[in-house]
Amino acid sequence: MGLPHDQLEQIQHAMRGICPFSTASNLAVVLTVLLNKSKQSHLGCLQAILAVVEVWLSICWMVGNSIATNINLCSVFGTLHQYSIIASSCWSFMIALYCYLIVIYSPNLANSLWRYYLMYGFGTPVLFTIAMYVSQAVLNRGIVTGDADYQCWIAAQYPELRVLLDFPLLWFQILAILFFYIRILVVIRSRTRDLISSQNRTKTEEASIAVKSEVNDMSRSSVPGSQSFSGPAANNISAHARNGSATYQPNSGDCGPEVMATQQLPRFSSPTAVPFRVTVTNSAPAAKMTKSRNKLIAKTFVVSVGCFISWLPPTVVRILLLIPGTQVPFWLSYLTGVGFAMSGLFNSAGFLVGILWDHFLKSKSGHKVNGGVDSIS
C-alpha cells in the first residue's frame, strides 16, 4: 500500500488511542465470566474466548508495523494475526449460532453441539493460517508475512491473499450473524404476540353466576333486582354487574379472582343469573418478552453497525489495491485503521451493556431479571 510516513503516523495515533478501550472492554468480559457464576455457561465461555482473541488483535493494532524490520518477530506477529483475525469472526459466528439454536430449537440441542463449536472456532483459523503458508510455497514470491501498513500480516507481494484468506469467510459469517439475530427477533416478536393474546384470553373469563335468595330467612324482605348496592360487598364489583361488565382488580394476597369475586357478590332475593367479566391485570411474562426483544434489537443494531464500520472500509481498500494503478484516498485508509481498532469494541460492549442493563432493571424492580431469552441477549 505504501502510505506516506506522515499519513501512516496519523492513522497509527488514532488506532493506539482507540485500542486501549477495546482491550479494557474485552478484559472486563473475561473477568466478568471468571468471577460471575451466573455467566459461567456455554455462552459465557464463548464470549470469553472471543474477548481473549480481541485482546490479542488490539495488541497487534497497537504494535502496528513498528516491528516490520525484524523479520522473525514480524513473522510471528503476522502468523498470529492471521489466526486471530479468522478466529474473531468464527467465535462471533458461534455465539450467534448458539443463541439461534436456543431460541429456535432448544437449549439441549445448542449445548449438545459444544464440541463442534470448539472444533470450528479453533480449527478453522488453523486451516486458514496453514493455507497462507501453502500459498507462499505455491506462489513463491518470498516470505508471506511482512509489513501490511497497519500491522505485520500478509506481505505486499501477496495482495490477493489479503482478500481471499480473510474477507470471503468474514462477510459470509457477518451476514449469517445478522440472519440469526433477525430470525431470533422475528420469533420473539411472534411469541410475544401469542403470549399477550393468551394472557388476554386467560385474564378475561366469562362467568355466569347464579345467586339465589336465602329462602330460609323469612324475616328478610326481598330486594328488587334493579336496586343498587354499596359497601364492602360491592367494592370490587362494578355497579354495572347486572349488565354483565363487572371488573375485578386482584389484591396482592388474592388466591384467585373467581374465588374472591364470588365471595364479594351482593345477595339477591330472587334467583338471578348475573353474568360478569373477571379481568386480571398481570402481564409480567409478556412485558419481560418485550424487554428481551428490545434489548436484542439494540444488540443487533450495535453488532451490525459495528461490523460495517469495522470491515467495510478494509474490504474496499484491499479490493482497490488489487486493481493496478489505483490510488486509495487517505480518508478511506484512515477509516480502515479506525475500523480495525474499533473491531473489538462492539461484541464486548454489547455483552457488558446487557449485564449493566439487567442489573439496573433488577435493582429498579427488586425482582430477578428473566433468565430465559434475556440470557442470550
From TrEMBL:
User: Membrane spanning segments where?
Assistant: 14-36, 43-64, 84-105, 117-135, 169-188, 296-314, 334-357
One GO CC term of this entry? plasma membrane
Q: Which keywords describe this protein according to UniProt? A: Membrane, Transmembrane, Transmembrane helix
Gene3D superfamilies to which the protein is assigned, alphabetical: Rhodopsin 7-helix transmembrane proteins
Q: What membrane topology was assigned to this protein in its record?
A: Multi-pass membrane protein
Pfam families per the record?
7tm_2 (PF00002)
InterPro entries assigned: GPCR_2-like_7TM, GPCR_2_secretin-like
Where would you find this protein in the cell?
A: Membrane
Q: Which residues form the G-protein coupled receptors family 2 profile domain?
A: 74-192
**GO MF annotations in UniProt:** G protein-coupled receptor activity
The yes or no answer to whether the keyword Thylakoid is present is no
One of the protein's GO biological processes: cell surface receptor signaling pathway
Q: Chief localization class?
A: membrane
Cross-referenced PANTHER family: G PROTEIN-COUPLED RECEPTOR 157-RELATED, TRANSMEMBRANE PROTEIN 116
Query: What's the protein called, per UniProt?
Result: G-protein coupled receptors family 2 profile 2 domain-containing protein
Organism of origin is Rhizoclosmatium globosum
